[in-house]
Design a protein that fits this description.
The protein is of the alpha/beta class. It contains 13 helices and twelve strands. The strands form two sheets. Strands 1, 2, 3, 4, 5 and 6 form a six-stranded mixed sheet that branches. A six-stranded parallel sheet has the order 9-8-7-10-11-12, sandwiched between helices. Helix 5 links the parallel strand 7 and strand 8. It starts with 14 loop residues before the first strand and ends with a helix. The structure holds nicotinamide-adenine-dinucleotide. Nicotinamide-adenine-dinucleotide binds next to helix 4 and helix 5.
Length: 354
């Protein structure tokens, strides 16, 4: 039998902590992948897992993902993630959040938490009563970093799409460039609005067809059914909804030279980055192009710790660097013949000293 820390997902985590608090009923895992560049930052997920092993796998994979994302965004932060194992009816109590806050505090700032799936801003405010190692709290005031990360994520994706269009199609503007956009929620609608301002041609889809239709009407684009969006003939396919959409079948359907969008974990499996490259499709690695939100969340934390305000300018500066990072990845991919997702992983590993 092999030790679990030799399994691939474990990937040399610095610390994996199981938190069990009898009186509140809290069971949580805090995974710290790397603190090489700074405190491990990554949100807390509140989820009902079919089995504890799935919770551990989620914590480990998400934590490593945060190490890579934070490093590639140029942040002085490492990577970590927490999962709270919810029961089947997802009961969440103030006592559980307090016990979770105590567990974060006990790590003395090695781990910094924030919202993720199932955790609200109000939950983070509750956690912040027990520890200062929290971000994603209400914005402190004019010029302060923080608040809803969606618009910051959208800005980074918009700039990334422009960089891809310049790199692959040789165009300085997205005017009349056709973008097929999947998901018109917080991030997708923000990307669509920014593209529309520049005169891009938009085709939109959302599982809520009405949401896509209303936005298409507002922006002068078209809406199509959710199962049609991946086969639209376009210049850019921009996934901003679900993960794992780039699988054998999804990639075969694509009719575009560029994939650039904000959904997390777009590649169903590692081989799918190579499949995109083999089809001659330029791919913007998801965790590089969608880093705008974490850039804002991290700055909010750094500002609160240092007592500085006005971090919004730093946020804008770092988001403006996302296109440069993407171009660096694409150039290295073209030079080496290695797919862009693998190039990004290798760059991230180098930055965190692995
Ligand atoms: P959201 O819930 O606001 O929007 C998601 C949208 O996708 C919804 O409108 C939903 O109806 C739609 N959708 C779901 N399944 C779909 C399908 N099969 N086809 C078409 N549309 C579908 O979420 P969001 O905050 O906009 O996040 C979107 C993606 O971006 C997620 O993968 C998220 O993990 C990722 N992401 C978000 C942020 C952020 O700052 N919010 C940061 C990084 C990454």
């Amino acid at each position: 039998m092999t030790a679990f820390w030799t399994e691939a997902d474990y990937d040399d985590h610095e610390l994996v902590q199981l938190v069990h608090d009898r009186s509140s009923g809290l069971t949580a895992i805090i995974a710290l992948h790397s603190t090489h560049l700074g405190p491990g930052a990554g949100g807390t997920r509140f989820w009902h897992y079919a089995e504890p092993k799935a919770a551990m796998r989620d914590a480990l994979r998400l934590s490593r993902g945060m190490s890579y994302k934070n490093a590639m965004a140029g942040l002085p932060m490492g990577g970590g993630k927490a999962v709270i194992l919810a029961d089947s009816d997802k009961t969440k109590t103030p006592e559980m959040l307090a016990a979770f806050g105590d567990a974060v505090e006990a790590l003395g700032g090695r781990y910094v938490t924030a919202e993720d799936v199932g955790i609200s801003e109000a939950d983070m405010v509750a956690v912040s009563q027990r520890t200062s190692h929290v971000s994603g709290l209400p914005v402190a005031g004019e010029g302060a970093a923080g608040g809803d990360p969606g618009p910051f994520t959208a800005m980074g994706i918009y700039l990334g799409i422009k960089a891809a269009v310049k790199h692959n199609l040789g165009k300085d503007s997205v005017a009349r460039v056709h973008v097929a956009l999947q998901g018109t929620g917080s991030v997708g609608s923000g990307v669509a609005r920014l593209l529309a301002k520049d005169g891009a041609r938009l085709t939109l889809a959302d599982i809520s067809e009405q949401r896509a239709a209303i936005l298409a009407q507002e922006l002068g684009g078209n809406a199509v059914a959710p199962d049609a969006i991946m086969s639209v003939a376009c210049d850019v396919f921009s996934p901003n909804a679900l993960g794992a959409i780039l699988d054998d079948e999804g990639i075969a359907r694509l009719d575009c030279p560029i994939v650039a969008g904000g959904a997390n974990n777009q590649l169903a499996r590692a081989k799918h980055g190579e499949m995109l490259a083999a089809r001659g499709i330029l791919y913007a690695p998801d965790y590089v192009i969608n880093a705008g939100g974490i850039i804002s969340v991290a700055q909010e934390y750094l500002d609160r710790q240092s007592g500085n305000a006005g971090g919004i300018n730093e946020v804008r500066k770092r988001i403006a660097q996302i296109p440069e990072r993407l171009v660096q990845i694409w150039q290295e991919s073209e030079r080496s013949g290695v797919s862009s997702d693998v190039v990004a992983d290798r760059m991230a590993q180098q930055l965190i000293g692995r």
